[in-house]
Each structure stands twice: as structure tokens, then as C-alpha cells.
Amino acid sequence: MTGGARAALAFVALCAAMARSVWAQDTIPRLRHILPIDYARVQPFQRAYDINVLSGDSTITIGQRAVALRQVVLTDSSAGWLLTETRGGIVPAFDSLFLAGDLRPVRWTSSLGASRLEVEFGADSLSAVIRGPAGASAAKLEAPPDLLLSGAMLELVVGLLPLSAGWTDSVYVLSADASGADVSAVEIVVIGDEPTVPDPSGTARWIVALHAESRELRLWVDKTSGVTERTQQVLPTHTGTMLELRVRERAEVMPPR
């Protein structure tokens, strides 16, 4: 297998849903609370990203990613949102997440190659079915009100939080694989900021980190728009040093499926 193929497989394993096994931890206590989301700032959008693998001084683009949010009418005739995420490359992936008006998950489907995850949400619980070449498994779990499901949902919510120097909170994430599913907590914290390059006087970005023991995911979030312009996560040493998603300033967005 080539280095690019290994990197692509590492990408889909880590980012097909950033909330999956990467963040599954049983040692973090569960705190039931609601995130301070500014719902008035929710707006439809389309964004495109390059999927890069960094190794030393080299950068290899292994695929593209598109994220879109649009208004929809849910099955109960209420107004809601559809958040989609499409990832192209050696192993294509697609997420479709229906959200209520307050961004509460309603239904989520996620496909990665031949594997598929389907999740239905109730008032305070979720039912998940994971299907793959080896068979299927199911789980029913508690669903906290601040549960995040995918990389796209994480980026959406982070851009609506009252970020400031030193701001910190915690969120819950869903971990799902062929053996079942679990809900766990992770820490979210603003660890710094950086100016716009090359104009230091321009709009700056917050640097936000998600921590789960020794693992960390970093997001660079525009202070004005709330757009996540870049994410980085350490890769296993045999695939490269860092996985990066970087927003494309002018790009064709892959159409939703």
C-alpha cells in the first residue's frame, strides 16, 4: 500500500466521524449540562476543504471535503436543518445529519466505504445500528443534550460558542464501531489565538482544542464568522505526522448526495 493510500485510510479512520473511537474514554466523568450556543447566528452555508497529510516539510493532498448546512422541514413538520459532509479520496465517505431548530440531533446516517451507521434520537436516548461486511450490531444509549456526532457538527457548534481567551467547557461525543457504541465526554478549551496572515491587523482566529487524555484535535476558528478554517490532528507515525483539513478560499463544493 502506498503512503498516500495509508494516509487516506488513516484519515477516514480518524475523521469519518471525529467523535468516534478516537475520543471514546470512560475515565472522564459525565456532566449533564447544555452548551451556551448562540442559535441566532445559525445560517445556511457551503464550505470546501482540502484533506492534507503533513510530514516534515512536505504536504500531500489526499482528498477533498465538502460541508453544507441548509434549512429543511422535518418529518414532524417542524423547521430544522440538514448538515451534510462529503469526503472524497481512496475511501469515500458521506454523513447526513438532520437537526432540530435548536441543533438537537434527530437522525444521523454515516457511510464509510462498505460500512454504514444509522442513528435515531429520542428525547434523551439514541438507537444506533452499525452495518458492515462482517455483519451488524445495535446499541441504545443515553443522549446528553450537548452530544456532538461528527466533525461537521463539531465545527458548526464551536463557531456558535462564546469563545474567549481561556474559555473552557465539555461536550459529549458518540463513539461507534463494529463492536457497538458509547457516549463519552471530552474537554473543549480555547488555547490561544493567531492573527490573519499576511495582515496582522486583520480578523484573527481562535485556536480551540478538544482533549481526551493524550489525544488532541485543534481547530482554527475565525473570530468574526465562526468558520473553522483549519483542523489538525496527530497521525500514527507510519502515515505522516499530522492530518490537516484546510478551507479552500475559492473552490467548487461537492454536491450533497
List keywords for this structure.
single chain; 257 residues; mainly beta; 15-stranded mixed sheet; disordered N terminus; disordered C terminus
List the SSEs and their pairings.
Elements: H1 3-15, E1 45-55, E2 58-73, E3 79-87, E4 93-100, E5 105-112, E6 115-121, E7 125-132, E8 135-142, E9 147-148, H2 151-158, E10 168-177, E11 180-194, E12 205-212, E13 215-222, E14 228-234, E15 242-247
Strand content: over 45%
Task: Please state the overall shape, judged from the principal axes of the Cα atoms.
Answer: globular
Number of helices: 2
Order the strands across the largest sheet as they lie in space: 8-7-6-5-4-3-2-1-15-14-13-12-11-10-9
Q: What's the end-to-end separation, in Å?
A: 29 Å
Description:
With 257 residues, the chain is mainly beta. It has one domain. It has 2 helices and 15 strands. It has a 15-stranded mixed beta sheet. A hairpin with a 4-residue loop joins strand 4 and strand 5. The longest helix is centred in the N-terminal third of the chain and has 13 residues. The N terminus and C terminus are likely disordered.
Brief description of this entry?
The chain has helices spanning 3-15, 151-158; strands spanning 45-55, 58-73, 79-87, 93-100, 105-112, 115-121, 125-132, 135-142, 147-148, 168-177, 180-194, 205-212, 215-222, 228-234, 242-247. It is mostly beta strands.
